[in-house]
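fyi for ur records
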Amino acid sequence: MTTPPRRPLRIESLRDPDENGVVARQTGLPAAVRELHRRVLRAFLATGQTPHRDDLSVDGVGRDDAFRALSSVDLVHLDADGHIAVAYPFSRRPTGHTVQLDGGPELHAMCAIDALGIPLMTGRDGAIMSADPVDGHPIRIERNGETWRWTPEGTAVLLAQSSGRGPAADCLCPTITFHTSRDRAEGHLRGRPDLAGLVLDQVQALDDAGRSFGPLLAHDVVSVEMLQTDGCPNAIEYLPRLRALVAGADIAQPVEVRVITTSEHALRERFLGSPTIRVNGRDVDPTAGQRRDHGLSCRLYTGPDGLRGTPPDEWVLALLGPNPADEPDR
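which gave:
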């Protein structure tokens, strides 16, 4: 498999993304690599922790080739230990841009535009916490449906890049920052002759973020996963029922079964017990985002009829519907 390399992402990729942006690069990948990219993004969303390349299934193509293809188009980069270091909009390490989706884990965004892109990519409400790099003044942005609240009200985004030739993670992301006002952003840019860029107002910043990241998880397939411990009787008994629910929703993609084998693996996956059901990386349990009891165990669900070892059908069907991302995280 050969994927032609592309120039690293730059300002023009965000401002005019149709030919060279993140979405265009994802679309140009072979189908198996495109789905792997989505799995990487879902893993960050589901756990808040960086996945290891070996924890992600790859269909129809070699694992090394698939990750090499993602790196060649500047979408995903690995650390030396095999963990995902960068998968725009997500970062393995704290960057000063933190995103907390309602009911979800804390996420680290690569830059200000990426932070705005996470709620837009998922269709979920939440909050972004950052700071003006000039003086550290805190900045908070909240999304509630179609309403965005910016604190301070005059917050602007500096879209800047250095002259380096490396990936966007090195030459673009560190200089895309929130500022408490347009004047402060413009002053910061004037004081950095090593940078080229422009200042975006809030509407422009949301527009760039939406075009860059909004379609990334707009699936041509729906991903349904069952995470289980080896030999779990509840999981074995439930799998035919889950497959029937998926088929009844006119979803052709097969259910992916993944076995969690160690406590470390359970923590990485934020595994709440066996079986755990996720649709497009989202746990079907409405209370999952509030829980921290991750580990190798059997899972109990509190449904309308009391405790049970498998989730109620209506929880699964709610996420298999036509527009689950548009619903608030329950």
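The first helix runs from residue 11 to 15. thats all i got for now
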